[in-house]
Design goal:
This protein is an alpha/beta fold. Helices cover about 40% and strands about 15% of the residues. A hairpin with a 2-residue loop joins β14 and β15. α1 runs antiparallel to α2, α3 packs antiparallel against α4 and α4 packs across α5. The radius of gyration is 20 Å and the shape is globular. The C terminus is likely disordered.
């Protein structure tokens, strides 16, 4: 059976995100990709946590890294008693899942699934690390398949010859929406803001679009309003690090200001992903403030004089009134009616 990452760009294949094998996790270093293709090798689960914290992997990459990191943790404690392994893995799950605060609850879910896999391995006498690895692959398969459904609804909103504006790196949905658009014969022109200070839009999103055969143009973070006004943008779309039940969207800093401009200019904004039941509103989400020195440089080259201060919130909050629709695997929902997604499992119709 083909894995759902088949035919996607290099960056979106499981082995090129994070992969456990023989007592180590290899993680593609997205900080230097695509100019360099380098992997960070972790031999302890704390190193996986550090790789996530240090932005070696970004967007949804940490979810795969966390799962594979749990397989590594199982390898680390393989010679301990079952009771000691259980304690060790529980502590490892807490360590890995709290690498970054804004996505901690989603990471807790991933690590919890791996703990469940460990329990099944102990009960059946199977190798714990390999059982967790298989579970990690299953979770990835399910996530990619779910996003494949999301892509079908999102591409419905794209014209046959459309111009699309993205934000940051939306990981799997970028590949899946392009795969779906190609299958339908839709010709898309894509604009990718650079998304400083890590330039994910320029390096990651644009690379995926190019590798999958689409016309792609990189713009700087301060150009989206001009581009929407002058380049005939049909749709603005982004993924989200969290979609709160009140319709608030937590995503890469800068999403809010693009959404404001899109609303003013009449460009629909569709956010992709499942609503987060654990976040009733944006008040439940801790916005991560990262090292301010990163905004004083560009790819390691300092751009500001000594003594100048920086400020670096990693995410911002886009209110629901700026969101045209939340694109899920069950259709497109009004951001003010996300309770329908979680309460009605049969609600597959488009409701926007």
């Amino acid at each position: 059976m083909d894995r759902p990452d088949k035919d996607l760009a290099f960056l979106l294949r499981y082995e090129n995100i994070a992969w456990y094998d023989d007592g180590a996790v290899r993680i593609l270093d997205r900080r230097c990709y695509p100019r360099k293709v380098e992997f960070v090798t972790c031999t302890r689960h704390e190193e996986v946590r550090d790789a996530i914290r240090d932005m070696v992997t970004q967007s949804a990459g940490p979810y795969t890294a966390a799962a594979m990191g749990m397989a590594l943790a199982a390898h680390e404690c393989r010679r301990k008693s079952e009771a000691e392994q259980r304690v060790f893995l529980t502590e490892a799950a807490n360590c890995i899942s709290h690498a970054r605060p804004t996505t901690a609850k989603r990471m807790e879910q991933i690590c919890g699934m791996m703990l469940d896999a460990a329990e099944k391995a102990w009960a059946g006498g199977a190798p714990v690390s390999e059982t967790i690895k298989r579970r990690a692959i299953e979770v990835n398969n399910a996530r990619y398949q779910k996003i494949e459904k999301i892509a079908t609804y999102l591409v419905d909103r794209f014209p046959e010859n459309g111009t699309i504006l993205t934000q940051c790196f939306a990981e799997t949905i970028v590949g899946m929406m392009l795969k779906e658009a190609k299958a339908r014969g839709k010709r898309l022109r894509i604009f990718c803001p650079e998304t400083r200070p890590y330039f994910q839009g320029a390096r990651l999103t644009a690379t995926v679009c190019y590798e999958m055969g689409f016309d792609v143009t990189v713009i700087t973070d301060n150009m989206p309003a001009f581009v929407m006004q002058n380049e005939g943008v049909d749709v603005f779309t982004s993924a989200a690090d969290a979609i709160c039940m009140d319709g608030s969207v937590i995503n890469k800093v800068g999403t809010f200001q693009i959404a404001i401009a899109a609303k003013h200019l009449g460009v629909p904004y569709y956010v992709t992903g499942a609503p987060d039941r654990m976040h009733a509103s944006a008040k439940d989400v801790r916005i991560e403030l990262r090292n301010p020195d990163f905004v004083l440089q560009a790819m390691g080259q300092k751009t500001a004089r000594d003594g100048v201060k920086g400020y670096y919130p990693a995410f911002d909050v886009t209110p629901p009134e700026l969101v045209t629709g939340v694109v899920t695997d069950r259709g497109i929902f009004d951001p003010h009616a996300l309770d329908r997604y979680v309460s009605d499992a049969d609600a597959y119709e488009v409701v926007v």
